[in-house]
C-alpha cells in the first residue's frame, strides 16, 4: 500500500491549522490569503517581502523522510515572470545568483523557498543540515532544488527555466534514492541528477515548511500553492503525465470561467457550447481517476495515453473556439525589439515569417515599436528593411525608432533614412521629414511617434541614450491635435512609441527600474498629461524586453487609458513559462491584435512555429471598466 506522507488540498483549514488527508496538521503563520486554485478549490497565496524571517508560511512540524525514496507534487502559480526590466540594484550585476544572501531584498520578494525541511543555505555550507528544498529563490526566479543526506554531498539542480508567467503549472520532483532526482514540469521531464551517492543516507526528521525554508526564513513571495502531495515512493513519468493531463482539464475549466468572452468578439451560442464541452470533459476526468483508484496499480503508460487523449481533445476545442471570433474591424501584427543582425540572419528570417503569416491571415498592418536593428549598423538596418520589403505584401508599415537605431548615424542622417524607407512604402510623402505620421483602417486610427533628439551627432557604444527617450514640443502639439480629433467615439486610438510608460514599468518592478527605460524628456510631463485626457488611447511600447506572462501585455492606467508592453521579439525566453518550446532558444513572440468596436483582442503568438499561445491572450475595452 502506498505510504502517503502528506496530502493537502487546503479545503480543511480550522483556525490557524491546515489539515492534511493523512491527518498531519500544518500551523499557518502570517495569515496567507486563501484563494481559488487551479481547479477552483482553496489554495494559499504567499506574499512575503523577502529576506530574513518569513512572514507567511505553513509549518508541518517534524516529518520523517528517512532513507526511502519519495515524490513531491504541487500546483503552483507565480504572479511575476522573470522580467528583464532591470529589477536589480545598480550595485548588483544582472546574473543568476545561487546563494540567497547575494540577492537584494527586491529580488527575494519575487521568489523564495517553496517547500523545505532544511535551511536554504544549508546545502551550500560544509557541515550543512540534511534535507531537501524546492525554491524559486534565484535572480529572475528560476526554479531550483537542493538535496543532502546526512553526512553526504550536496545534490542540486539550479537555474532551470522559470515557470513564472502568471499561469498555473504542475511541479513534480521525484527523489529516487536508487537512481536519480528527476524534475517534471507540466508532466514533462526537465532535469535529472544522480542520487546514487546519497543511497542509505537519512534525511532525518527536519521541520517541513511550505512557503519558506526549514527555519522559517527566505519566504515565498507572490506565489499561490495548490494540492500539495508527498508520497513515499517513486512516481513514474507516465503517472505524472497522466496526473497533469487530468488536472489541466480542471485548470482549463477554471480559466475559461474567468476569461472575458464578450459577445462582440465571441458568439454567445459558441460560448455556451465550449463551457458545456469543458464541463463534460472534467466529469470524464473525474470518472477516469475514480476508475484508476478502484483498479489500484495498473498500466500507467496506457493511462497516460488515455488522459492525454482526453486533454488533447479539450485543448483543441478550446483553442479552436478562441481563434474563431466574429469578423474584426481591423487586425494588425504587433512586435517590438527585433534587433535584426543582418540580411538573411535568423531574426530577419523570423521577422519575414511573421509578416508572411499576418498577410495570409488578411491583416491590415504590422506595427513595430522600435529597436528593429541590433546596433544601428548599415547591414542590420538593411537586413530589417529587406525583410519588410520582401514579406510585407499589402500590410501597412507602422514603424517607430528605438534607441538602438541611434548608435551609428547622426540624428539628421537617421531621420532621412527612416522616413525615406517609409516613403518608399507609401506611408509618408516623398521628402517628408517628420518623425511622426498616422494611418487609418477599419475606422481605427494609428499614430506613430519616434523619440529622437535633433541635437546629438553620434553616441558610440557608451550607453548614452538619453536622446532616445526624447520628445519635442511639435510632436506633442501634433499628438494632441490627433487625439482631440479621433477620441470621444469609444474607438481605440493606437499610439506606437519605443520607451515604456512610467506608470506601467513602475508597477512591474515596484519602482526599481532604470530611468532611461521610460519616456523621458523635457516634455515628458506634458506628454503624460495629454494621454490622461483621452481614455481611448492604447499606447504600445517595447524597450524593456519583457516576455509573455504577468509583466507583458495590457495594463489600464490610473487615468483610464491602456498601455501595452509588447513582448520582446528577439529570441525571447524570460517569462515564457512551461511549454513544448521550453528548451528552445529562438523564441520570437508578439501579438496578433484585432479590434471589435471598442474592444481589443491581443492574441499571443510564437511566429517561428506559427503557434497561438492562447493562455496569454487578453481582451481590453477602451473607455470602459476592465472586462
| Count of DSSP strands | 30
- Helix fraction, binned, reads 10-25%
Major sheet: order of its strands? 2-3-4-7-16-9-10-11-12
Mean of residue pLDDT values = 85
End-to-end Cα distance? 49 Å
Structural class: alpha+beta
**Strand coverage percent:** 25-35%
Shape: elongated
Outline the structure in words.
The structure is a single chain. With 627 residues, the protein is an alpha+beta fold. The chain contains ten helices and 30 strands. A nine-stranded antiparallel beta sheet has the order 2-3-4-7-16-9-10-11-12, with no helix packed on it. Helix 5 (346-360) links the parallel strand 18 (330-335) and strand 19. Helix 2 packs antiparallel against helix 3 and helix 3 (268-295) runs antiparallel to helix 4 (300-323). The model is unreliable at 82-108, 457-463 and 573-583 (pLDDT under 50).
Write a brief structural summary.
The protein has 627 residues and is α+β, with helices and mostly antiparallel strands. The protein is built from ten helices and 30 strands. Helix 2 (237-258) runs antiparallel to helix 3 (268-295).
Detail the topology: elements first, then pairings:
Blueprint: E1 4-8, E2 13-14, E3 17-19, E4 25-29, E5 33-36, E6 42-47, E7 57-62, E8 70-78, H1 105-109, E9 113-116, E10 131-135, E11 143-148, E12 155-160, E13 168-175, E14 180-185, E15 188-194, E16 207-210, E17 221-231, H2 237-258, H3 268-295, H4 300-323, E18 330-335, H5 346-360, E19 365-368, H6 378-391, E20 396-399, H7 411-424, E21 436-441, E22 444-449, H8 473-486, E23 493-496, H9 502-509, H10 524-532, E24 537-541, E25 553-556, E26 562-565, E27 589-596, E28 599-606, E29 611-612, E30 618-621
Parallel strand pairs: 18-19, 19-20, 22-23, 23-24, 24-26
Antiparallel strand pairs: 1-17, 2-3, 3-4, 4-7, 5-6, 6-17, 7-16, 8-13, 8-17, 9-10, 9-16, 10-11, 11-12, 13-14, 14-15, 18-27, 21-22, 25-26, 27-28, 28-29, 28-30
Amino acid at each position: 500500500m502506498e505510504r502517503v506522507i502528506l496530502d493537502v488540498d487546503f479545503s480543511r483549514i480550522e483556525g490557524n491549522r491546515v489539515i492534511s488527508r493523512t491527518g498531519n496538521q500544518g500551523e499557518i503563520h502570517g495569515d496567507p490569503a486563501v484563494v481559488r486554485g487551479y481547479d477552483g478549490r482553496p489554495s494559499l497565496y504567499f506574499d512575503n517581502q523577502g529576506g530574513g524571517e518569513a512572514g507567511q508560511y505553513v509549518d508541518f512540524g517534524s516529518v520523517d523522510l528517512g532513507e526511502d525514496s519519495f515524490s513531491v507534487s504541487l500546483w503552483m502559480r507565480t504572479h511575476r515572470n522573470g522580467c528583464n526590466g532591470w529589477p536589480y540594484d545598480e550595485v548588483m550585476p544582472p546574473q543568476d545568483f545561487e546563494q540567497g544572501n547575494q540577492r537584494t531584498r527586491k529580488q527575494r520578494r519575487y521568489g523564495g523557498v517553496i517547500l523545505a525541511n532544511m535551511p536554504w543555505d544549508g546545502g551550500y555550507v560544509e557541515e550543512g543540515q540534511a534535507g531537501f528544498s524546492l525554491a524559486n529563490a534565484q535572480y529572475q526566479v528560476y526554479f531550483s532544488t537542493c538535496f543532502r543526506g546526512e553526512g553526504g554531498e550536496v545534490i542540486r539542480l539550479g537555474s532551470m527555466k522559470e515557470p513564472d508567467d502568471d499561469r498555473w503549472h504542475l511541479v513534480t520532483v521525484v527523489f529516487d534514492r536508487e537512481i536519480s532526482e528527476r524534475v517534471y514540469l507540466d508532466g514533462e521531464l526537465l532535469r535529472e541528477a544522480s542520487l546514487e551517492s546519497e543511497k542509505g543516507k537519512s534525511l532525518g526528521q527536519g521541520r517541513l515548511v511550505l512557503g519558506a525554508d526549514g527555519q522559517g526564513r527566505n519566504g515565498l513571495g507572490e506565489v499561490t500553492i495548490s494540492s500539495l502531495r508527498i508520497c513515499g515512493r517513486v512516481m513514474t513519468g507516465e503517472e505524472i503525465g497522466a496526473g497533469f493531463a487530468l488536472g489541466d482539464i480542471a485548470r482549463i475549466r477554471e480559466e475559461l470561467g474567468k476569461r472575458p468572452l464578450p459577445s462582440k468578439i465571441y458568439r454567445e451560442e459558441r460560448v455556451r457550447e465550449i463551457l458545456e464541452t469543458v464541463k463534460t470533459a472534467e466529469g470524464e476526468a473525474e470518472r477516469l481517476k475514480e476508475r484508476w483508484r478502484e483498479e489500484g496499480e495498473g498500466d500507467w503508460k496506457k493511462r497516460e495515453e488515455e488522459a492525454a487523449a482526453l486533454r488533447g481533445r479539450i485543448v483543441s476545442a478550446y483553442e479552436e473556439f478562441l481563434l474563431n471570433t466574429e469578423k474584426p474591424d481591423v487586425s494588425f501584427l504587433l512586435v517590438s525589439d527585433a534587433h535584426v543582425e543582418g540580411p538573411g540572419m535568423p531574426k530577419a528570417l523570423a521577422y519575414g515569417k511573421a509578416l508572411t503569416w499576418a498577410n495570409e491571415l488578411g491583416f491590415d498592418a504590422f506595427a513595430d515599436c522600435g529597436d528593429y536593428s541590433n546596433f544601428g549598423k548599415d547591414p542590420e538596418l538593411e537586413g530589417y528593411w529587406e525583410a519588410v520589403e520582401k514579406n510585407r505584401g499589402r500590410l501597412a508599415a507602422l514603424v517607430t525608432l528605438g534607441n538602438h537605431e541611434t548608435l551609428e548615424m547622426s540624428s539628421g542622417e537617421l531621420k532621412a533614412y527612416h522616413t525615406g524607407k517609409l516613403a518608399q512604402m507609401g506611408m509618408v510623402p516623398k521628402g517628408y521629414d517628420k518623425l511622426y505620421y498616422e494611418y487609418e483602417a477599419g475606422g481605427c486610427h494609428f499614430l506613430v511617434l519616434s523619440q529622437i533628439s535633433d541635437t546629438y551627432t553620434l553616441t558610440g557604444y557608451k550607453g548614452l541614450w538619453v536622446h532616445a527617450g526624447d520628445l519635442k514640443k511639435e510632436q506633442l502639439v501634433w499628438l494632441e491635435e490627433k487625439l482631440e480629433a479621433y477620441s470621444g467615439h469609444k474607438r481605440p486610438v493606437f499610439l506606437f512609441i519605443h520607451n515604456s510608460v512610467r506608470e506601467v514599468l513602475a508597477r512591474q518592478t515596484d519602482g526599481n527600474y532604470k530611468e532611461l527605460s521610460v519616456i523621458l524628456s523635457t516634455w515628458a510631463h506634458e506628454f503624460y498629461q495629454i494621454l490622461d485626457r483621452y481614455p481611448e488611447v492604447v499606447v504600445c511600447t517595447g524597450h524593456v524586453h519583457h516576455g509573455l506572462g504577468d509583466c507583458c501585455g495590457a495594463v489600464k492606467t490610473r487615468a483610464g487609458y491602456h498601455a501595452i508592453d509588447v513582448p520582446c521579439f528577439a529570441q525571447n525566453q524570460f517569462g515564457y513559462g512551461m511549454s513544448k518550446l521550453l528548451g528552445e532558444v529562438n523564441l520570437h513572440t508578439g501579438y496578433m491584435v484585432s479590434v471589435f468596436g471598442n474592444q481589443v483582442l491581443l492574441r499571443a503568438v510564437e511566429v517561428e512555429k506559427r503557434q497561438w499561445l492562447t493562455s496569454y491572450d487578453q481582451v481590453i475595452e477602451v473607455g470602459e471598466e476592465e472586462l
